[in-house]
Every structure is written in structure tokens, then in C-alpha cells.
Predict the 3D structure of the following.
Amino acid sequence: MQPTTVIRPHAEQAYAHELAALAAHDDRPRPASWLLSPWAVVTYLLGGKAGETEIEPKYYGRRRLIEIAVATLATDRALLLLGVPGTAKTWVSEHLAAAISGDSTLLVQGTAGLNEEALRYGWNYARLLAEGPSENALVPSPVMTAMRDGKLVRVEELTRIPADVQDTLITLLSEKTLPVPELNTEVQARQGFNLIATSNDRDKGVNELSAALRRRFNTVVLPLPDTLEEEVAIVQNRVAVLGKSLELPPDAAPVQEIRRLVTIFRELRNGKTEDGREKLKSPTATLSTAEAISVMHQGQSLAVHFGDGELRAHDLAAGLAGAVVKDPGTDTAVWQEYLETVVKKREGWQDLYRACRELE
């Protein structure tokens, strides 16, 4: 039996050679406990060179935003990455943690049912009953571990966490200490500790941050890509990486199909055609870059396993309706109108129009 291959290695594993090359050629000042200087961290995210090693871009966007994020983490202020779903908030936070701490696994996933233990600490109840409160019975949270080790910790979907649990972070971020009253002790954060949170305001059930907690963060808003070309490049890059990890042929997703998909998403998202000549209705779906990557990846898989290996209109159409129509009551009419008024009339898009209609 062949050894199992990891589907999605952590950033510090997947890009270990880039991080090593940057560290070897990084002669700039590094904050305490950082593996790289702020300049090298920005290079790691945006791409460049470290000696003879080519550094692959992880984020396509404004350099200044990444510089602000990295500079924030070099201070005692926590970082909040804000934006609509699919703007690479989680992706950026993971790579920041990998480049700065060499460990992106200290993660708290925010949910509506999260309790304080996930942010503070818990107990091994078998030991607690046998021994009473002790160091051995205590189960540290990722936040406590990061404080002890001087690393970054990530809190995903901060505004999905109940408000009273969110406020557990206030003491951690302002005092840089985590009290453990059961043991009459505390954990003081070592240099290098900081927190990266992500949040969006489009999900239902969002819990607003209190003013006291919001003041503990520097906020960086990650926007959707500015131009069609920029978004096409992002989708093309991510689809290639995902396809490689699943051993799909590199040419299975032609750039012209990626361009058609991204054009559709941008037009429906913006409520107008790319040339600005025609106004359109927008669906309830976000239609983010991340969703475009997902649709493209699904089409790529269909083409490889059930076609001739090259993604075509009928493979692309398979995931399009599902991505656009999230609320059948309103989105179905929006999608059908777009097909009739834009896709059907656009030169060279008749194959996509027929494929979408056949699925109905």
C-alpha cells in the first residue's frame, strides 16, 4: 500500500523551501520571536526573489494593505482582517502565521456555539476528578499555547462567536495575560505573541464586536479584486495549485473559460456588464473569487474524469447555476434573465448559453 498523501498541507509545509530561502537571505531586523523580518514576510505573501529562489505570490492585491497588516503584527495591537466572503482573509492569515511564527495550526474556528474554553483553557475531567485542579489536568487553548510560545494565533469568523465569548479576548489583548484562578496563577504572553482575527458582515447571525473589543484591533479591509485581469490571474493560480495537489492535468482549465466565469461573476456582482452599457440585477449570492475557484475546480474535475480532459462550456455550466442561485425564489429569475439578455447575445458564448439551458 502506498503512503497516504496529505490533501492540503499547512502553509509552512507547502512552502517550506521558500521560507527557508527567505530566512537565509534575510539580513533585515526581525521583531522578537519572528522567523523573518517584516520586509521578508511581505515578500513571501506578494512574491519576489530570495537569492535564486522564486517566491510565488500568495496574495494578489494592494501591497500597502499587506504592509499595514504586517506592521500591525509587529506592534502590540491585534489584527482584524475584514471583508466580504471570498476575499482571501483566511488565506492571508494562514500565510502570515506561517511566515512569522512558522506555525499556522494555532487556530480557533468561530461558530455560534463556541464557548469560553475554546479561547481560554479547558480541563481533562478524568484527571480533574482524580487529582483536582493541576497543571496536568489543564487543557490549553490555541490562544494559551500561542501566549506561552510567543507565536501568532488565528481566530476565524470572529463575529460568529457570541458577544459574551468575544469579550473574553479583551483582557488577553489589553493585559497580554490569561488568568487561571483555579491554579492561582496566570500565563503571561511572551514576545512574539499576537492575534489575527477574520470577519465578514455578510453572513446571517453576525454578532457585532463591542466597542471595547474593536479598539484592541487594527482593522485591514481586504477588497475584491479591482480588475478583471487581476481576478482571472488569482483564479488561474489557485486552480493550478489545487489541480496539482489532486494530480489533475495542468491544462485542464483553459484561461478562456476562466475569463468567461470571472466575467459572469463580476457582472452579476456589480450589477452591470463589464463595458458598463447594460444594468443587471444582482443575485443574493456573494459570487466571490473563492466561489469562482470552486466552480472552476469542479468543472476541471468533470472534464478530466468524464470528458476529454479539457474543460468546456458544459463542464463550466454544471457549477454555475448552483453558485448563482442560492435563493431559488429570487435568484432563479435573475440568472435566467442574465442568460437571455447577456450570455445568449454575446459573441462566442452560444455554447455556454446552450449548456446552461440544457441543465434546466
About this structure: The mean pLDDT is 91.
